[in-house]
């Protein structure tokens, strides 16, 4: 399961917000079961809890002990003297958990990526570069091919193997322009093989994409990425002033 780093950050932020509310709410304990929202602060209190619960769910963290979670919230609202761990200790616990979780996630994702690439290339329908990029030629252009030092104009759509679109110049309604040697290695490689006017679909392995680090929050560690790339133009060099 992939952890959503953005949601984890929001979750941690909510915890900090609740802890900081200790001074305002110190000594106040209301029953959790059957509570009704009668005032604005009742609504705020419920919204804080709902936000935290939603973010815990979307992070993918499993096995959270609800009783201990609620005890931590109540202790924080009472004040530092009632906390079983200090804020610094709590941060260390969360950081250690995240480091371990990300390591396990990266290892699992790497195995999944290798399996996906093997299956995708097994039927011979996709062509392959020597580095392992799989690609399908949708349209073969007749223009020149760019060099790694060229600046190009492209339309593109990037998605995960699950079909989630994480970036699209088509959705923005504006082609992208960039030097070819300043993008992920898979792009630098595959675009040099595409004549202007071509549209290819490239399946890029993690080592030629964002690798073990990923690109949070949308791209996890060791993810295979699938790009539809339309090479529109090789741009002229910028004039030297």
UniProtKB/TrEMBL annotation:
GO molecular function: peptidyl-prolyl cis-trans isomerase activity
EC number(s) reported in the record: 5.2.1.8
PPIase FKBP-type domain sequence ranges: 149-235
Annotated signal peptide: 1-24
Chain coiled-coil ranges: none
Keyword Secreted: no
InterPro entries xref list: PPIase_dom_sf, PPIase_FKBP_dom, PPIase_FKBP_N, PPIase_FKBP_N_sf
Keywords per UniProt: Isomerase, Rotamase, Signal
Catalytic activity: [protein]-peptidylproline (omega=180) = [protein]-peptidylproline (omega=0)
Top-level EC class: isomerase
GO BP of this protein: protein folding
Family in the record: Belongs to the FKBP-type PPIase family.
Name the UniProt record assigns to this protein: Peptidyl-prolyl cis-trans isomerase
Organism taxonomic ancestry: Bacteria, Pseudomonadati, Bacteroidota, Flavobacteriia, Flavobacteriales
């Amino acid at each position: 399961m992939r952890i959503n780093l953005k949601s984890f950050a929001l979750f941690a932020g909510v915890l900090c917000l609740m802890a900081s509310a200790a001074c305002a709410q110190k000594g106040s304990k209301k029953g959790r079961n059957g509570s009704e929202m009668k005032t604005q602060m009742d609504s705020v209190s419920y919204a804080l809890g709902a936000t935290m619960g939603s973010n815990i769910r979307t992070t993918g963290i499993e096995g959270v002990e609800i009783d201990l979670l609620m005890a931590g919230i109540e202790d924080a609202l009472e004040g530092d003297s009632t906390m079983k761990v200090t804020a610094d200790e709590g941060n260390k616990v969360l950081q250690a958990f995240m480091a371990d979780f990300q390591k396990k996630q990266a290892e699992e994702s790497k195995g999944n990526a290798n399996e996906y690439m093997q299956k995708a290339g097994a039927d011979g329908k996709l062509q392959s570069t020597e580095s392992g990029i799989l690609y399908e030629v949708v349209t073969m252009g007749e223009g020149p091919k760019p060099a790694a030092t060229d600046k190009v104009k492209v339309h593109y759509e990037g998605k995960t193997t699950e079909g989630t679109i994480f970036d699209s110049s088509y959705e923005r309604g504006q082609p992208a322009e960039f030097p070819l040697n300043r993008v992920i290695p898979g792009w630098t490689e595959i675009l040099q093989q595409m004549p202007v006017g071509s549209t290819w679909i490239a399946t890029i392995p993690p080592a030629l994409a964002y690798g073990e680090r990923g690109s949070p929050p949308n791209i996890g560690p060791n993810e295979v990425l699938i790009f539809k790339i339309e090479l529109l133009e090789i741009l002229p060099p910028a004039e030297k002033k």
